Amino acid sequence: MLKRLLIALLALAGVAAGTSLGFWQWGRAQQRTALHEAIASRGALPPLSAADLKAAGEGADLLHRAIVLRGEWVAANTVFLDNRQMHGVPGFYVVTPLRLEAGQGVVLVQRGWAQRNFSRRDALPPVQTPAGTVEVRGRLAPPPAKLYAFDTEEKGPIRQNLDLARFRAETGLALLPLSVQQVGPSSEGLSRAWPRPASGAEKNIGYAFQWWALAALIAILYVWFQFVQPRRQARRP
Description:
The chain is α+β, with helices and mostly antiparallel strands.
């Protein structure tokens, strides 16, 4: 009797855990979907300007909004972020500060991707940086994702990562606390076929059904071995 009770409790715990984890993953999927839809709706809003950034203030959440900026490239401080891929090909994300017109600060712009020289790893790709005033169309985006690297301060044009606060102190530029990802057709030796952010909800939905399937399997096995099979054996002559 005690053994049957223990088996029942374990089966109940397994079913409850699987069901609960399934609903938790389902909830995560709904959150991710809502966030993805919010990002898409922000991208459809009219483009911001440098004046809009200044008026919004530092604490404003403007990520993923379209933006149009005018200014001059600070070409001497261009950084080539290594080990970045586009369509499965390794290369660099090219990042250049843009000094905005009318003294409105400096913005770090992710200008695009360039393939690396595989025979000379220290060679810089042939990227053109126009002089004078330029107009940059893009979207407000988080800084480039950080890759694993030793916690040492990186210097020079080729780097693994770029820390905004350290870069601001290193260059003395009045960098705004945001980053712009330039969009548009390929130009200046750069490709801008940025990967589109996916919601990731599909994985959570898959995990949810896996947990629910496990809970159903535990319930089926419990009923089979504790009720169905004993009754079938009892009926045999």
